Amino acid sequence: MTEQTIRLTIEGTTATITVDRPKALNALNTATLEQLEEALAAVAQKRELRGLIVTGAGEKAFVAGADIAEMMNLNLEQSLAFAARGHRVFDALERLHCPTLAAVNGFALGGGCELALACDLIYASETAKFGLPEVSLGIIPGFGGTQRLTRLVGRARAKELIFTGDMVDAPRAKAIGLALDVVPATQLLAHCQAVLGRIAQKGPLAVARAKRVIAQGADLPLPAANQLEREAFADLFQSADRREGMTAFLEKRPAAFHGT
Ligand code: DAK
Predict the structure, then answer these.
(1) Domain span holding position 239
(2) pLDDT digits (tens, 9 = 90+) for 199-246
(3) How far is the CA of 108 from the centre of ligand 1 (A)?
């Protein structure tokens, strides 16, 4: 039987996916990627969920990369299949309807750093370490790292990290805009849950639509991207949530959004 290496838990409106292979520092092998894909499909179906936290089991690693032992013996065809699966999984994570937070609690290297990069927001424990060390292995990042890191921190910083393969600690990751905040390891999940708690009080349609237009607009010229925003704004303006949000403000009470 295949070992279960992905745990999906749901508490209230928050889902948590934990990569649970601590003996291999949560490295991603094919079975783990398959299970991750299944877990993300389950989350995608639960439209009532307001957020997802992705983290690693144990105290040492978020995810230390793709599984080097498994990759060692891949032929070209298998390596392309492995990359295709990785891209499929990370794209599914990126496109999820709700905000996704990476709770980086240790090493986030290679595919692990790329997993965090596919999330909307990255928070780090004081013990976190980030890096794309693929060039040390004679390869380049294969799960979107060259593109997502560049879009997040800019070309020069991305090149520096990718060309050197250097690891950066959590404060440095924050300084270059890779991690948003650095918190003590014991408070990392609570910090992420608190962020999602604040988001969960807002209009769900509005948050989901903001996520979509930010993603779709990122690859478009500004006028076309702004047009997407206008269309989204007009759609939301007709929602019951918009009426409720504005009425609640005028009546000086908290809004009760229903996602309609
Ligand atoms: N894969 C497999 N096993 C790993 C691993 C990994 N990425 N990282 C750690 N482990 C295993 C170690 O082998 C060790 O196993 P045992 O020897 O105990 O059996 C165990 O986890 C504990 O690790 P260490 O003993 O090494 O622990 P240390 O504290 O001494 O060092 C470390 C921690 C994170 C600095 C070190 O483990 C390390 O450097 N790990 C490798 C990090 C790394 O290079 N990661 C990037 C992998 S490359 C592609 C698509 C995607 C990718 C590639 C291609 N396609 C296009 C096909 C992605 C590539 C990557 O992610």
Answers:
(1) 204-250
(2) 999 999 999 999 999 999 999 999 999 999 999 999 999 999 999 999
(3) 10
Asked if residue 53 and residue 164 are part of one domain, the reply reads yes
Residue nearest (by alpha carbon) to ligand 1 atom 52: 142
Instruction: Judge if 238 and 123 occupy the same domain.
Output: no
Q: What's this model's pTM, rounded to 2 decimal places?
A: 0.97
Does the annotation mark 11 as catalytic?
no
Q: How confident is the model at residue 2 (pLDDT cuts 50, 70, 90)?
A: confident
DSSP lists the bridge partners of residue 100 as: 52
128 lines ligand 1 (CB under 6 A): no
- Tell me the CA–centroid distance for residue 143 and ligand 1, in Å: 15
**pLDDT tens-place string over residues 80-105:** 999 899 999 999 999 999 999 999 99
Note whether residue 185 is domain-resident.
yes
Residue 183: strand pairing partners:
125
Give the Cα separation of 102 and 99 in Å (integer).
Answer: 10
Active-site residue, from 94, 134, 160, 229: 134
Q: What one-character DSSP code corresponds to residue 127? A: T
Whether 134 is catalytic is yes
Same domain, 150 and 234: no
Cα-only R_g, the chain? 19
User: Do 66 and 183 fall into the same domain?
Assistant: yes
Amino acid at 70: E
The enclosing domain of 217 has a CATH number of: 1.10.12
